[in-house]
Amino acid sequence: MPLFHRVTILGPGLLGASLCMAIKERMIADKVRVWARKQSALELCKQEKWCDEAEPNLKDAVKDTELIVICTPVNTIEETLCEIIQESGHNSIITDVGSVKENICRIAHAGTQANATTFIGSHPMAGSEKSGMEYAHSDLFNHRTCMITPLPTDSAEKVSILEKFWVQLGMNVQQKSPEEHDKIVASVSHLPHLIASSLAEYLSHSPDGWLEMSGQGLKDTSRIAGGDPSLWREIMKSNRSFLLEALDSWLGSVNDFKNILTDEKWDELENYLAKAKECRTKI
Amino acid sequence: MPLFHRVTILGPGLLGASLCMAIKERMIADKVRVWARKQSALELCKQEKWCDEAEPNLKDAVKDTELIVICTPVNTIEETLCEIIQESGHNSIITDVGSVKENICRIAHAGTQANATTFIGSHPMAGSEKSGMEYAHSDLFNHRTCMITPLPTDSAEKVSILEKFWVQLGMNVQQKSPEEHDKIVASVSHLPHLIASSLAEYLSHSPDGWLEMSGQGLKDTSRIAGGDPSLWREIMKSNRSFLLEALDSWLGSVNDFKNILTDEKWDELENYLAKAKECRTKI
Q: CB distance from B130 to chain A under 8 Å?
């Protein structure tokens, strides 16, 4: 028996449309309802087998549904949440797929006090430097990690249902507080993005022809610098403090490296590289 | 007609054994001769179809052969070159596959003045964070870039033959001076390695469980930190000055990023990320 009768996906982009596909394929809900801000996106959804109901009105889209997943662009998640929080059914669960959790959970907590709706933040760590429905696929979430960020006051039953939802999508689910989540992703996701971007920005000043001399190493190290600048602007803006902390801390490691090179301490260099290699094997 | 009657490969590791395979497969030489320092490695080669002659004596290995490719570990290239430079046939070409070129070319230039042997440095930008014969494959060089670093005094004919050799292996060949080569790889190869390693070293101090929260982005950004520490120690040691220059220059880009975040200049952040993305598409 499916976990839900009806699930509503707000925003059929890469993550939203992939979610619809995976929910249908894995029979997690009888009905998948989609809302999109743009009529053209909604028209495309209507032609897809994974879309049972295409609803142009946001307030209608969140009625009579057990799970609402906000997959709108990261800078509109909070605004979308505020628009629906008073409209959704009293027993429904609202979640999102944004990369930063502290702020949204605070807003949601204030807004959901009034009724029985529960917002529990989710961060499925799946995606791509590509964006848009055309890159969606039903395997996007499989074998990936999803952090969910319930508050201590949230209903244990609803937390458990949300956890089941992501597990049924093939994800490894971890519960963290919103603050801890943001601290972790600052280090393991947002800092790597900053690093890849700084490398690509540095190389943009190279003489003509230098980039053609690069190999697979540079390709991999810089890949995520190809991500959407407006999306990453919002992510970094939302997680500025923790990202700055992680940046400073990592710069300490870079400085150690620089001192080793400057002082020509070659045994220390090998130890440093070996420590890095050992950590890399765990990633 | 094959380009060479006989080619000698010194050191059948990942690069050396892959070269043997590719030379045979593409019929670039009638005979492939292999020399290895370890008898056990030589025994393994004897069982392979790509090895026509397995020679345990280094001085004999470089006699009566038109091309000698030094593929020994990076810290032994110079010593291997010194051992063979007086022994190889007067018209043979010696090359290597090392990642740093200025020093080896200087040593070779001094050593080859006495006879007609020509050393011309090569740097095929192919490889893997894996090392050893067991990972060798004949496609390793295909569609990759190879820099060759002839000196103005080298015979144009021999430079042209060496270029043909790499082209027949499927490579895009670029000629650079040894110094220019080392400057370029400091930026596009050695700095990315330093960066990936510094990220992994930083993350090695993370609380338990954090690394499990990472996604594909961190995997890619840190992949090359999995490279062999002793190999990279030697590469960075050989290219220390240019690497330090590249490091300082890149740290300027990191500092710009930090200032943007600190000062909350979000439009500037988006411009920075867009510039990085634009450069990334060219890599």
A: no
